[in-house]
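stage 2 :: seqdesign
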């Protein structure tokens, strides 16, 4: 394994790369001018056809990096599956497919197909029969398709494993082996991982040829994220400490990370019972509930999200006010990954971590990483328990009509604001899916918004609506 020698280079302009003119022009129209560190270090090797291992956190620009390599290599006139991206969750697969479509919008007739669990199998077979250039999906569902012979990978020349560490954590190793065994040996392979455990090293050795290792520093938290640590004695005290921190500094959006699915649900239930606006996100939820949870937290219809690390991979929020580690993460890199979700885009982030004597070895690892001794802070006074529970400003309305019924965001906005409706600034995010749409409105305008949508028409017809409650 060789290491990229581009590590100290400053970000370079995309125009310095040998990309198809259409791709370069589209990048400029998207406002992508200078490459991020991971793009500058990995793209030249990827474009030269080399196998690359990229280690970098969410938000580092890795999707655009492998996306450009994939699109540069693609031959549109060959209507065969040429590239495939494997992701740990449906949410991440949807995010990746969305980014690829954005990068590819100047290149005509590229077909990108998403294959994930939690959606019907039959329609996916129909879509595969119509053909595609690029497949994005989760290992479980893609393995099903390759075993049944509905997905043929004989023409694949580029394979991407995105967030490979999470796929292994979720138990997908056998599925990955099964899929990779059905791909051509002479393909190019790109592997991205936030952490780099021994298991990843072993897999990279077995599926890659002389890969180049690109490692991007994840130490941004040292300068932009204020970290505070609080010592607790037991689980009851841990929950009390969490309440004190949430009430002492009420915020619009907070994510609480737990280490297990069971703990995630228990913490969310306890906070809900105590009057907080809270949602839980973990792998035991039905796919529809997970999708709605992510959507409602992103549109500010809930102020607190309690999540496991794996489930939160689909979380695409520009800036979180605070991240709270209910337990310290199992390793330092996961801790850095968690807290990196606050303080993005140059803003100052805040991260709180609760720990007990049993977790002191994890604190020792963090002290080595942060290069200073961690001194526990004093918890806020119990008087804050009398403070009002922070509530979400928005509410979400579900509309039983979407893209397939020709409903567009403009139709929803018009129905809400026209003829003595609510004001434009009372409407938040609008998400239009295939057969459903979701719109966030301020809580104060919810009653009027519901009445307007119930009585009004979009595309000449009425749609059923309902308020999604926490």
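stage 2 :: out
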């Amino acid at each position: 394994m060789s290491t990229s020698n581009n590590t100290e280079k400053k970000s370079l302009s995309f125009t310095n790369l040998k990309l198809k003119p259409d791709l370069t022009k589209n990048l400029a129209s998207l406002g992508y001018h200078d490459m991020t560190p991971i793009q500058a270090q990995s793209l030249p090797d990827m474009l030269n056809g080399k196998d690359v291992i990229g280690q970098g956190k969410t938000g580092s620009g890795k999707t655009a990096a492998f996306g450009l390599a994939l699109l540069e290599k693609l031959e549109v006139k060959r209507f065969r599956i040429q590239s495939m991206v494997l992701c740990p969750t449906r949410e991440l697969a949807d995010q990746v497919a969305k980014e690829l479509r954005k990068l590819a919008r100047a290149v005509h007739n590229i077909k990108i197909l998403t294959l994930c669990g939690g959606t019907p199998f039959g329609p996916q077979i129909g879509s595969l029969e119509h053909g595609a250039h690029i497949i994005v999906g989760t290992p479980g569902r893609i393995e099903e398709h390759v075993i049944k012979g509905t997905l043929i990978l004989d023409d694949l020349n580029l394979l991407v494993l995105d967030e490979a560490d999470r796929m292994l954590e979720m138990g997908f190793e056998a599925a990955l082996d099964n899929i990779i065994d059905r791909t051509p040996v002479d393909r190019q392979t790109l592997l991205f991982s936030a952490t780099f455990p021994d298991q990843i090293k072993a897999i990279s050795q077995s599926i890659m040829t002389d890969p180049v290792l690109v490692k991007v520093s994840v130490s941004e938290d040292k300068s932009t994220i204020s970290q505070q640590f609080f010592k607790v004695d037991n689980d009851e005290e841990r929950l009390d400490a969490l309440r004190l921190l949430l009430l002492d500094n009420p915020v619009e959006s907070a994510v609480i990370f737990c280490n297990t699915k069971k703990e995630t649900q228990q913490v969310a239930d306890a906070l809900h019972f105590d009057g907080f606006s809270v949602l839980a996100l973990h792998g035991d939820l039905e796919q529809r509930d997970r999708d709605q949870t992510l959507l409602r937290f992103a549109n500010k219809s809930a102020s607190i999200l309690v999540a496991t690390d794996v489930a939160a991979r689909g979380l695409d929020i520009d800036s979180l006010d605070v991240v709270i580690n209910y337990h310290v993460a199992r390793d330092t890199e996961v801790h850095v990954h968690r807290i990196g979700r606050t303080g993005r885009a140059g803003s100052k982030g805040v991260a709180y971590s609760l720990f007990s004597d049993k977790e002191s070895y994890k604190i020792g690892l963090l002290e080595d990483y942060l290069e200073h001794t961690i001194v526990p802070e004093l918890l806020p006074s119990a008087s804050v328990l009398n403070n009002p529970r922070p509530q979400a400003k928005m509410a979400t309305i579900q509309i039983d009509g979407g893209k397939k019924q020709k409903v567009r965001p403009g139709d929803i906005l018009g129905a809400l604001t026209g003829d003595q409706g609510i004001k434009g600034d009372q409407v938040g995010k609008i998400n239009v899916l295939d057969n459903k749409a979701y719109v966030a409105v301020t809580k104060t305008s919810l009653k009027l918004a519901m009445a307007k949508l119930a009585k009004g028409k979009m595309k000449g017809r009425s749609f059923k609506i309902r308020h999604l409650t926490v």
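stage 3 :: structure notes
- The radius of gyration is 23 Å.
- The mean pLDDT is 87.
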